[in-house]
User: Fold this.
Amino acid sequence: MTINIQYVQMPTSESMSAIITSKLEKLANKYDWIIKADVFFKLENDPSGLGKICEIRLSAPGPRLFAKSNQDNFEKAAATTIKELENQLKKRKEIFKKY
Assistant:
């Protein structure tokens, strides 16, 4: 699986890249049919304290999987987004099961 990480309107972060890469590698080990992951970290001005956005788009057989979360820090946003993607992957795996 190839992982592309982009930081939109913010400086790059090696620690966030390492965290997201390790979490996506775990998903890739569990679901070996994932082809590619595109990760976008965005910083927006939000008066409510949120505004740290993580978007992940996975390329796999069938329609693309997409998840997005908006939290008060990037670690929480990444964890929430990956949890949401894992739920989508579980549903997709049920479709692929051979009876």
In short: Helices lie at 14-30, 74-96. The mean pLDDT is 90. The radius of gyration is 14 Å. The chain has one domain: 2-96.
